[in-house]
Amino acid sequence: MGGVLVLACAAGSVWMWTTAGERRAVLAVARPVSVGHVLTAADLREVQVGADPDLPVVEAVAVDGVLGRPMGTSLPAGALLHRDAVGTVLVPAADRAMTAVAVPDGRVPPEVAAGAAVSLVAAPDESALEGVGAAETWAATVVGVTTRETTSTTVLSVELASDDAREVAAVADGQISVVVLGGDR
After folding, report:
1. Order of all β-strands in the sheet with 117-122
2. Among 64, 159, 79, 164, which residue's Cα sits nearest to residue 122?
3. In the chain, what is the greatest distance between 2 CA atoms, to the nearest angstrom?
4. CA 109, 111, 113, 119 torsion-angle sign
5. Which of 12, 26, 69, 169 is in the most buried spot, having the most CB atoms within 10 Å?
6. Confidence at 185, pLDDT banded by 50, 70, 90
7. How far apart are CA 141 and CA 161, in angstroms?
8. Assessment of whether the complete model's pTM goes beyond 0.90
9. Cα–Cα distance measured from residue 89 to residue 70, given in angstroms and rounded to the nearest whole number
């Protein structure tokens, strides 16, 4: 009886090892890339993943087909390169808009990168009457990041709902803070 149990465990281990080992070589971005950026070999790296064959990622053998092509969306470092991310610009998406937000140092985490989910927070105007006005927030995705060291300002290109983009664009310079979100928004 003990021998049968040992054989069953060994067979189960072999089965788990072989099915878990079915990996494939795909492309990931080696550093953050923004929409419109033309891909070079330095932007990409090969990774081994155990991904569903129907996942629309770019196989490593297809690297020549993406080099020299523009990014259609922004991706953070380490993200798998999916077929829809290369070529046609996908930003802004339907019913969405892009705007620029100039954020002073101290109001944006220095680690913010293209592809990050963020919450833009507008502090109420300090001159407003006491008890009036709460902070307004908008959910957005960072499309691009430019740091202006001479003015200690980071300019974020963000994609968000069209109506929200108009509201964010109307907020006075220096009043928006950025919160980088993890996981689900």
Report:
1. 96-104, 153-161, 136-148, 117-122, 176-180
2. 164
3. 82
4. negative
5. 26
6. very low
7. 10
8. no
9. 8
Which tokens hold the place of 97? 């808009």
Indicate the burial class of 73 (C-beta count within 10 angstroms; 0-12, 13-18, 19 or more).
buried
* Helix segments in 21-141, DSSP class H: none
Q: Comparing 8-12, 167-171, 177-181, which segment has the lowest mean pLDDT?
A: 8-12
pLDDT band of 122, cuts 50, 70, 90: very high
Type and span of the H or E element at 121 = strand 117-122
50 Cβ neighbours under 8 A, 6+ residues apart? 20, 21, 22, 23, 24
Residue 144: half-sphere exposure toward Cβ, Cα within 13 Å: 15
**What CA–CA distance (Å, rounded) separates 121 from 70?**
31
Radius of gyration of the chain (CA): 23
Span 6-29, average pLDDT = 65
Beta bridge partners of 179: 119
